[in-house]
Design goal:
The chain has about 400 residues and is an alpha/beta fold. It folds into 2 domains: about 210 residues, NAD(P)-binding Rossmann-like Domain (Rossmann fold, 3-Layer(aba) Sandwich); about 180 residues, N-(1-d-carboxylethyl)-l-norvaline Dehydrogenase, domain 2, CATH 1.10.1040. The strands form 3 sheets. Strands 5-2-1-6-7-8 form a 6-stranded parallel β-sheet, with helices on both faces. It has a 3-stranded mixed β-sheet with strand order 4-3-10, covered by helices on one side. Strand 6, helix 4 and strand 7 form a beta-alpha-beta unit. Helix 8 packs antiparallel against helix 9. The protein is globular and about 60 Å long. The chain binds nicotinamide-adenine-dinucleotide (NAD) and D-Mannitol-1-phosphate. D-Mannitol-1-phosphate (44H) binds next to helix 6. The site of D-Mannitol-1-phosphate has 11 residues, from helix 6. It is an enzyme of class 1 (oxidoreductase).
């Protein structure tokens, strides 16, 4: 589709979800997309390739979408060009990973600072698997290192920040596929509309705009990502290649169902979600993550175990809250144990760091440092027990 709106989006992170989902939706809504990334080869390929395909795969068959009207800039080597793109953009989105937000904040802050107070403020939406990712990005942008304190009072005239929940399974791609992206048909992109109410929401087809994002992001993270990660970590431990392979194992399937039943109980009690509706959602997710056409490797889904073991994440977040309310957490603890066992995985720096942390710290310190859990919390002794068991097994090996 040609750029019919004359609108421009700058998207940080031209990886799987960036090319396959966010840029695809921006393009289909008439935006020109300027990718910002640090991977030089990827930037060159994007600039040398006038179109790529987004290929949906599933039991219903395959369908393709052709994406055009994009460019790419290396944010490491061409910062000034990127600042200018952000100054003149309508929207900035990102899918770089939650730990990278602090690195992209300085250039976004510079671009925002150069904008006029009299034009429509820049719409900023982070598309990461994390609760409040846009708030995190905004807090880095507002940091005194990136934005002069005297400019903070009028920042809302130049930029607005909205949290989002983004859901579409995009596995690691075939290295010979060029820019093409193979993914599942299903998608959900929910964005908080309240920061844009007086300036208008950006015209992006496919976004669901809501007033209260918390139930949506928690339901997504604590169902899709809890279930996905449970299958991946149990699968890795039992030498399965993909999430699909893992789910063929009845014991792993029982662990996934168990963990998702525990998060269902919490989500229903906390957000008043209808129990039958959540059960149907849970079953749909189990079907989605078991899509045989995706060939989603357990190492991708389990990547970055330290992030996944942190306080607000897919396991510790719901387990701590459920335990505090005396709800069952047995299966979540099983999955947490498998996450602690995901050590020294090739190509995964966090899994190597996890191994060092486990060998150099007491179980109590691991629970405090990695999971951010205090001794006064009800889940604490059970997590210490899990870590001690994994440490004891490592010593025996
Ligand atoms: N893949 C999925 O199924 C999926 C679905 C929903 C959400 N997400 C979330 O989207 C984010 C990205 O995931 P992905 O699977 O696309 O990962 P990915 O590794 O495929 O893509 C990340 C991209 O960010 C780029 N990048 C890294 N540092 C950067 C920097 N400083 N500036 C600009 N670009 C930088 C990388 O070069 C890479 O191209 C994560 O937060 C993930 O949780 C992924
Ligand atoms: O991206 P992560 O590392 O937070 O989690 C891995 C997968 O669970 C994730 O990428 C899913 O595929 C995605 O969240 C589906 O919407």
């Amino acid at each position: 589709m040609a750029n019919t709106t004359g609108k421009k989006a700058v998207h940080f992170g031209a990886g799987n979800i960036g090319r396959g989902f966010v840029a695809c939706f921006l393009h289909n809504s008439g935006y020109e997309v300027v990718f910002a990334d640090v991977n030089g080869d990827l930037i060159d390929t994007i600039n040398a390739t006038p179109s790529y395909k987004v290929i949906e795969v599933g039991s219903e068959g395959t369908s393709e979408n052709v994406i055009t009207n994009y460019r790419a800039i290396n944010s490491r080597t061409h910062e000034e060009d990127l600042v200018e793109e952000i100054r003149t953009a309508d929207i900035v989105t990102c899918s770089v990973g939650p730990n990278i937000l602090k690195f992209i904040a300085p250039v976004i802050a510079k671009g925002i600072d150069r904008r006029s107070d009299d034009e429509t403020p820049l719409h900023v939406i982070a598309c990461e698997n994390a609760i409040g990712a846009t708030d995190t990005l905004a807090s880095h942008i507002k940091d005194a290192k990136n934005t002069d304190a005297a400019r903070l009072e009028t920042l809302h005239l130049r930029a607005r920040f909205a949290n989002s929940a983004i859901d579409r399974i995009v596995p690691a791609q075939d290295p010979n596929a060029g820019l093409d992206v193979k993914l599942e048909k299903f998608f959900e992109w929910v964005v908080d509309k309240t920061p844009f109410e007086d300036i208008g929401i950006p015209p992006i087809e496919g976004i669901q705009w809501v007033d209260n994002l918390e139930p949506f992001i928690e339901r997504k993270l604590y169902t899709v990502n809890t279930g996905h990660a449970t299958a991946a970590y149990h699968g890795y431990y039992r030498r399965k290649r993909t999430v699909y392979d893992a789910l063929q194992d009845k014991e792993i399937m029982a662990e996934v169902r168990g963990a998702l039943t525990e998060t269902k109980n919490l989500l229903v009690a906390k957000h008043g979600i209808d129990e039958e509706a959540q059960l149907a959602y849970m079953n749909k997710i189990i079907k989605r993550i078991g899509n045989p056409h995706l060939e989603d490797a357990v190492e991708r889904v389990g990547r970055a175990p330290l992030r996944k073991l942190s306080r607000k994440e897919r396991f510790i977040g719901p387990a701590a809250e459920a335990a505090e309310n005396d709800m069952p957490v047995k299966y979540l603890l099983d999955a947490i144990e498998m996450t602690f066992r995901f050590q020294n995985v090739e190509g995964d720096d966090e899994s190597k760091e996890l191994s060092t942390i486990m060998s150099e710290n007491s179980a109590e310190d691991v629970v405090a440092k990695v999971c951010g859990i205090k001794p006064t919390e009800k889940i604490y002794p059970r997590l210490v027990e899990v870590v001690k068991r994994v440490q004891a097994d490592s010593q025996e090996e």
